[in-house]
Amino acid sequence: MRTPPFMPLSMPSTAYRGRFAPSPTGPLHLGSLVAALVSYLDAKTQNGVWLVRIEDLDPPREQPGAADAILRSLEAHGLHWDETVRYQSQRSEAYIAALDQLAAADQLFWCHCSRKDLADSAVYPGHCRAHRQPRPDAAIRWQVPNTIERYADRYQGEQLIDLAAELGDVVLRRRDGPFAYQLAVTVDDLDQGITDVVRGIDLLDSTPWQRALFRTLGANPPNYAHFPVVVGDNGQKLSKQNHAPALDDANADQNLQQALQLLGLTLDGEPPETLLQTALAHWPNISLQRRKTLTPDQ
Ligand code: GLU
Ligand code: ZN
């Protein structure tokens, strides 16, 4: 019998492609460092490629200089990305092409409902479904297929959602112009060949839309893994909205240790790259299964 060819362990896998996709609404804080770290460690333990994509779709919510500050912070923390950083602000053509494809399949409609019109509806009630042609001053909505989205989240386990009944028709382009997150994230995850989406559990509810959109655009959805959200002492998610402080890049070692501690890894102070190597060796033993929160005092 012939032995299979020798494959060195360090050979990058051609299979796994992951990403960290921050919106540049402010500098990196502990919560977003954990997000970067989990996606990085998951990719690198599988010899995968790890990409960074700046999701700058909504200029009014962005902070000037935040994208550069995030990239500088990632470098300072030893989180070096593969391939060129992608900016969603430069991807309009691809988003328009995807909308054209959906329009050609008669799956879009133009919705002029106000916030007030929809205030009492958890799921879009279908008012504007008859408006199948572009009209000014309207959002573009996707009439979602009538499917049950069933998949196994790598961290949160079995998920089962009736897309039309529980989530409903979703906005893909806002009335005031910006492309919506659900459209842009799906088009780019597809285009960049992402195999594993690893992100916070606050985005779990978006996943069925994205999975369905993948298939509608002619591709198989990637694997998903939603990790527990980091909550501060007040029990609230660490986020810019909740005034999580910006990380000081000069304290990269301590920041990384703190982030790793939240993930259950207590490691000693070393330069970031060494700390990350040590973390990688321990990562396969860390379980984020079915955990909803990560707290500093666990
Ligand atoms: N840009 C999104 C955010 O910062 C994350 C997108 C994603 O990971 O799918 O919340
Ligand atoms: Zn409407």
Note down, in words, how this protein is organized.
- With 298 residues, this protein is of the alpha/beta class.
- The protein has helices at 30-45, 66-76, 92-104, 115-118, 163-167, 181-191, 207-216, 252-262, 272-282; strands at residues 17-20, 49-54, 86-87, 108-111, 139-142, 148-153, 157-162, 170-173, 196-200, 223-227, 229-230, 293-294.
- Strand 9 (196-200), helix 7 (207-216) and strand 10 (223-227) form a beta-alpha-beta unit.
- Helix 1 (30-45) crosses helix 8 (252-262), helix 6 (181-191) crosses helix 7 and helix 8 (252-262) packs parallel to helix 9.
- The protein starts with 16 loop residues before the first strand and ends with a strand.
- Residues 1-9 have low confidence and may be disordered.
- The structure holds glutamic acid and zinc ion.
- Residues 111-113, 127-128 line the site of zinc ion.
What ligand molecules are bound, each kind once? glutamic acid, zinc ion
* Main structural class: alpha/beta
Radius of gyration: 20 Å
Helix content: 25-40%
Low-pLDDT runs of 5+ residues are 1-9
Strand order, main sheet: write it out.
1-2-3
Proportion of beta-strand residues: 15-25%
Summarize the structure.
The protein has 298 residues and is of the alpha/beta class. The chain is 31% helix and 17% strand.
